[in-house]
Design goal:
homodimer; 388 residues; alpha/beta; Rossmann fold; Dehydroquinate synthase-like, alpha domain; 7-stranded mixed β-sheet; two-stranded antiparallel ribbon; globular
Chain lengths: 388, 388
């Protein structure tokens, strides 16, 4: 197995084959295509697959300044003029108001059941646009063109769409599969470093929960991914999507298995709520710290060897990701009770019973409700003290 | 076959067996239960099927004055206290504002993924509640308890949910299957006569599009249905739901076959748009007039015998349903060009090409795009003149 990994590390052509994934679901199947420079070819790709329907692009200013022009040109070359709907940058864009606005503009522009809605942006754009597509005319085709590493490996695969309401994030939405996911690794060039690293935390997650050999590959090649190596990025994104896809295929509507995708998220989500989504803590950073806490908890429960725990935490630290609460900047005054309370209010919790995704080895996640509060408390304390 | 029909007419016990339908869809299957007095037993039925989750009931004043108390009592008997969300009466309730309000109240009351949302009312309540259920926490269980004849035979089966926006009716929504449809024929006692007749137009539709023997049964027993005979109502609703279910099972997402459910609706919808939904023309009445126009068009095209056309139209007239535009009260000034324009803007139309559901015999609907505008014009003129 190690031989194959070394091969992948050194022989580009092997990686090069890994640029297309077919996601097979009960009712809807679709492709994920990963390619450096794909945006300049998007118009042709879409014409080939879907003909020439009306095209709508939802995007925000972060991405439009860098990438909108060449995207539109790729359609112009096909004789197609997409209509662009630009929404504000930021998490607060995922609101009922913007949902209504997008739908209103689609309907005013005579959207029809053959129209294509393209989400060109990060997770916010993908979630909002996906949801708008899910409910306009009871569902039109949506194409995800994720432009952050996080959305490329996570939010554009799996069909979760949604908006935030005052009671919490993503509490309104639907499961709605895209008709195509087109990933251009080139756009990572204009992604801020901090965002790139935060997205990389989710890449590491896939190794930890389901694929030890991918984790090993990351130990060897992770730096290349972060430094912009095209083939390394393509392979890391491909493999992350493949792992996520396997999990989603087995459990589309989040009954059970899919929960392992939330590794690091039970802790991480509580941190995000407490930090207040003010930009001091990115989602991927919260996941990174949450994964370390979940690894520590797995070890403390005697389910994971000290060696594996040490190796996993050491990798997260060495690559440059945050590992403890103490490292979060900003003015939040953290306390364990508050964090545990947030965990209990998570929408995935039923009857207040906390469930954790833990690992029993690198690449072997499992779900358990059998964790004493004291154990959770101890891990939080340790993270707060900066000892993780 | 006629023997069986007579049997159904005279021997109640045969009809009595027809009170449960299983709808089998690719991913979700559910039951439709039709029973006189079912509401007083709803709590027990739901506890048996779903245990004792949090229950939310969405209803309006039309129905709550008559039937809410006994519904709630049926839950109290099970030790369950449903939370009631009352929305205003009328089509304008199907709005983004009310969707948001319902979701907000659900979330404030700590709705969780096991909660049950009950739609107790007619089509407006069913559509709005179904949509709210579809998107709250990305989907919670919805139980349809339709209280008008129209919603009992039509809108509660098939999973279409939605709201209206300024560009038109039902332009935002989703396909979302209920977990149970519970039909109590008793509630028809408090339904205004005009609403009962309008709903009956959809019952007649099922015979005309797919089941000649059911049409024959209606010719013999339709009056009983309208006069409140329990068993006749049960059988008519059961058969209507069965026919709709067969069509929906074969074509859940409205690709093709499902279009025949729109018999009478292409004309009818244009009439409704022109009449402006001001109460002068109920949906079922528009469908009744639209069906007569579709029958006439079928005959004029030489696809339907004059004998069948005459029999169908005569039945619609004799039972007391409207047959032509001339009979619509109110101040609308009708004209054929305006109506044809509305038809072309229907959301089911692609590329402005009009498609019609016609019949080539009683019980044999088909879909065609091969109709000259002149023919449509002639039929509208005849309906306007009162000659249909």
């Amino acid at each position: 197995m190690f031989g194959r990994l070394l091969l992948l590390e050194t022989v580009g052509v092997v990686v090069n084959e890994h640029n297309k994934l077919r996601i097979n679901l009960k009712e809807n199947s679709y492709d994920i295509i990963i390619e450096h420079g794909l945006l300049s070819n998007l118009g042709a790709l879409i014409s080939e697959k879907f003909g020439k329907p009306k095209i709508f692009i939802v995007t925000d200013n972060n991405i439009s300044v860098h990438w909108l022009e060449q995207t539109i040109e790729s359609f112009s070359a096909q004789g197609v003029s997409p209509k662009v709907l630009e929404v504000p940058v930021g998490e607060s864009t995922k609101s009922f108001i913007n949902l209504e606005k997008i739908i209103d503009q689609l309907l005013e522009s005579k959207v029809d059941r053959n129209s294509l809605l393209i989400a060109l942006g990060g997770g916010v754009i993908g979630d909002l646009t996906g949801f708008a597509g899910a409910v306009t005319l009871r569902g039109i085709k949506v194409i995800q063109v994720p432009t952050t590493l996080l959305s490329q490996v996570d939010s554009s695969v799996g069909g979760k769409t949604g908006i935030n309401v005052r009671q919490g994030k993503n509490l309104v939405g639907s499961f709605y599969q895209p008709s195509l996911v087109a990933v251009d690794t080139q756009v990572l060039k204009t992604l801020p470093q901090r965002q790139l690293f935060a997205g990389y935390a989710e890449v590491v997650k896939y190794g930890l929960i389901k694929d030890c050999s991918f984790f090993e590959w990351l130990e060897l090649n992770g730096k290349k991914v972060l430094e912009g190596d095209k083939l390394a990025q393509q392979f890391a994104i491909f493999t992350s999507c493949r792992i996520k896809a396997e999990i989603v295929e087995a459990d589309e509507k989040e009954q059970n298995l899919r929960a392992i995708l939330n590794f690091g998220h039970t802790f991480g989500h509580a941190l995000e709520v407490e930090a207040g989504y003010d930009g001091n803590l990115l989602h991927g950073e919260a996941v990174s710290i949450g994964m370390v806490m979940a690894i520590e908890l797995s070890k403390n429960l005697g389910h994971l060897s000290g060696q594996d725990a040490g190796r996993a935490i050491e990798y997260i630290r060495s690559i440059g990701l945050p590992t403890n609460i103490n490292s979060i900047e900003g003015s939040t005054s953290w306390n364990p009770d508050g964090l545990i309370q947030h965990m209990q209010h998570d929408k995935k919790v039923s009857n207040g019973q906390l469930r954790f995704v833990l690992i029993k080895g690198i690449g072997e996640a499992y779900l358990t409700a059998d964790v004493e509060k004291k154990q959770v408390y101890n891990v939080i304390e340790k993270s707060l003290s900066g000892d993780l």
